[in-house]
Amino acid sequence: MKNKQDKLNKNVVSLKPYIYEKPSISAVSLKILILLTLQIIMLFISKSFNAIIVIACSTIGSILASLIHYLFIRKNKFLLLTNLIQGMIVGMLLPENYPPVTVLFISFITLLIFKYIFEDTENFWINIISVSVLIAYFIGKSYFPDFLITTDLFNTKNPSIALINNGTFPIYDFDSSFTGYLNTMLFSKFKVTLPQGLVSMLWDTHSVIPAFRFNLLTIIASIVLFSDNSFSLLIPTIFLFVYAVLVRMFFPLMTGGTFNEGDIILALFTSGTLFVAVFMIQWFGTHPMTIIGKIIYALFAGIAAFFIVGCGTSPIGMIYVVIICNILNLLIRNIEENHMDKIMNMISPEILEKKIEKEEE
Questions:
Q1: Residue 155: helix, strand or coil by DSSP?
Q2: HSE of 288, CA atoms in CB hemisphere, 13 A
Q3: What is the DSSP letter of 281?
Q4: CB 60: neighbour CB atoms within 10 A?
Q5: CA-CA distance, 236 to 282, in Å (whole number)?
Q6: Cα 113–115–119 angle (5° rounding)?
Q7: Cα–Cα distance between 83 and 125 in angstroms, integer?
Q8: How does pLDDT run across 61-117, given as a tens digit for each residue?
Q9: Going by C-beta distance under 8 Å and a sequence separation of 6 or more, which residues neighbour residue 44?
Q10: Quick one: 258 exposed, middle or buried, by C-beta within 10 A (0-12, 13-18, 19+)?
C-alpha cells in the first residue's frame, strides 16, 4: 500500500513546478531603490539639501530620457525602477555643488543617446551611470574635489589617522565612547586597537560626493543584497580583497615607504570603493557569466583600482575602474560565448534527441 501511494505521489503534478533560485530583476531593483533611499534620507537628516537637489535633477533627467524613448522610439517597454536607480546613482556620484541644471541635461542626453544606440536591449554592455559621471567630470572638473591625501602623507604609516587628526574627516561625539567599548570588549582579545575616528568614517565621511559618505549604510546594503543571492558575492569580494592586499603590501613601496604598511582603511572607506563594489561593479549585463570569467573580472578590477585610485581619496578613479572593467567584460563574454558554441557543436543531434527522450521517460 505504501509503495502504491509513493508511486501516486510521484505522478502528482505541482501547480507551481518552478522555483526561483534568485530574485527577479524587478525585485532586486526595488530592493536597490529602497537601500538608496535610505542614504538619501540620511542626506535629509544631515541637511545636505544641495546634494538632494543634484540627485533629484539627475533622476528627473533619467526618467525624461526613458519616457521620450518610450513614447517616440520604442513603445513596448518603460522601466521606471531601472531609470530611477540610474538617475539616483548618477546624482550620488556627483559633488553636491555641481550645477543642478547641468546635471539634469547630462543625465537626460547621455541616457537618451545610449537608449537609442542600444535600442534592442536595456542592459548596455557599458555602465551608463559611469559614462554619465565621467562626462560630468570632464564638463565640470572644477566642482570635483582633489585627492585628499598629499605627498607628505604618503610615507606615513596611517594616512587616514593623520586626516582624522587634521579635521579632514570629522569625529563625532559618540566616536570616543563607542570605540573605547569595542576596544575593551572585543579587539583587546586579539591585541588590536581600533583607532579613534574610524567609527565616524563609517558613519559619515562628510565628502561632497554623497556616495562616498555613508559607508555603514553601504555595508548594510551589501548584507541585504548578497544574503538572498540578489547579486553574486564572488566579484565584489575578490575585487575588495585584491585591492586591499595590494594597497597594504605594495603601495608604500611605490612612495618610498615600508613594505606591508599601506592604509587599508583609507582605501576602502574613501573614493566610493564600497559603494562601487555593492552597486556598480556588477551592474546588470556588464559582468561575465561563468565563474572563471567572474574571477578574472574581479581580479582585474582590484588591480585596476590599485593603479588608478592608489591608496584612496580619489574623486573619480573608481568610475574609470568600472568603465575599464566593462571593456574587459566584452572580451570575456566573447570567449564565454565561443566556448559554449564549441560545446554545443560537439553534441550531435542524435545524442541530444536520446537525452531528451530519456528525460521524458
A1: coil
A2: 24
A3: T
A4: 17
A5: 8
A6: 125
A7: 16
A8: 999 998 888 888 765 566 788 889 999 999 999 999 999 999 999 999 998 888 777
A9: 52
A10: exposed
